[in-house]
Amino acid sequence: CQPVPKPESRVEVCDLNPCPPRWKVTPAGPCSSSCGLGLAVQLVTCVQILHGQEVLQEEHLCPVAEKPLTSVPCVIRTCSYEWSFSEWSECSTSCGNGIQTRQDFCLSSLTHKPVNPLFCRHFPKAIVVRGCSAGPCSEQEETLSPGAQLQPVTPATHLTTPAAATEHRNKDLDVPLPAGPWEQTQPSGGEEIMAKRSFLCVCGNLFLNATGIINMTGVESRDCTVAIGRPLREEISVTILESSLNCSAGEVLLFSGRMMWRTGCRKLPLSLINSRTNTLIVKQRVVLPGNGVILQYNSRTATKKYYQDCDQQLFGPQGEIVTPVQLPDERQEVVCRTFITVAPRQRISIRALNTDLGPEGNHTHFNYILVRDVSTMKTVVFRGKQQFLWQSTGSQAEIEFHE
């Protein structure tokens, strides 16, 4: 090209539009488990390059469908011991709802033979009892599960006083209490108020008073769930005052607690259900509009102690969780627990702001936090100095502080 005149060098801007926002992933943090399968948390942020600099942007500006996972599986080493289980037993009932059980035993990963369960006591264990259904019962049979028994009671001659009926707000949630049977005795002119209050939506609420009446008739939703909560030292009993459920149409009432599970439809009126603990979930499933039940609940001091002295009970909507302190006279092998119950319409989010469970590299250190989602009975274990964010699928969670 020497004989040809060389043109001058030029630089032209080819594109003035900034690059679109993209996802940025930082290296994953420590594994949540010292052995076996765990989870590692990685920070995912939305960034954009502007004038050669990386600028943090709001997440909705990045493509949602392409967002990387914030938790990734990790394995540090194979566990020396692990829980193993037998096959599930047959359903405990020939019809309706019952339970299935299975045996658990500690297994050595080297010899694949059972060993003393003490070797597995620091590892989370899956459930050994679950619900089952053996098909519908006939008209003469009642659907009962071994979790609780229905007990006949005499009709209540005095449900509440008009003065008590006017105490219409839950102090903890500021939620109006549902309509009760006392409104049927109101003079002429109260029908409109009664009609409005009878359709007041109680679904999804958490009731924390010592006693009350819950009207679940005429609700708009097909599935209506309420929760009742009291301090740990108490237990809850529920009386079915009225029931218009259509059993042949598949309408049913379900009760669930930490130590019982019960479902039924027939022979509900004037029956008594004991929760045996301080929380109770009531779920009503209706098909025909207007059907439902009216409940009266009461609380009393528990007949048996079902909790440890270092256990704690928390109710929503927010709070701070600290490691429970054991009393000097308590056994050191006691596992301290924190129970969290929120309104059924809400979910639980637990963020660890500061954790120090001992050296991360020492795999013989058995300090860890176990978080259990009560609705699915799935557990997650956190160790070391890991900060984490855990979210529930239901309205109840349990936290165990080990060692």
Automatic annotation (TrEMBL):
GO terms for molecular function: metalloendopeptidase activity. InterPro entries: ADAMTS_ADAMTS-like, Sperma_CUB_dom_sf, TSP1_rpt, TSP1_rpt_sf. GO terms for biological process: extracellular matrix organization; proteolysis. Gene3D superfamilies: Thrombospondin type-1 (TSP1) repeat. Pfam families: TSP1_ADAMTS. It is found in: Secreted. It comes from the Eukaryota. SMART domains: TSP1. Keywords: Secreted. One of its GO terms (cellular component) is extracellular matrix. PANTHER family: ADAMTS A DISINTEGRIN AND METALLOPROTEASE WITH THROMBOSPONDIN MOTIFS PROTEASE, PAPILIN. This is ATS13 metalloproteinase. It comes from Acrocephalus arundinaceus.
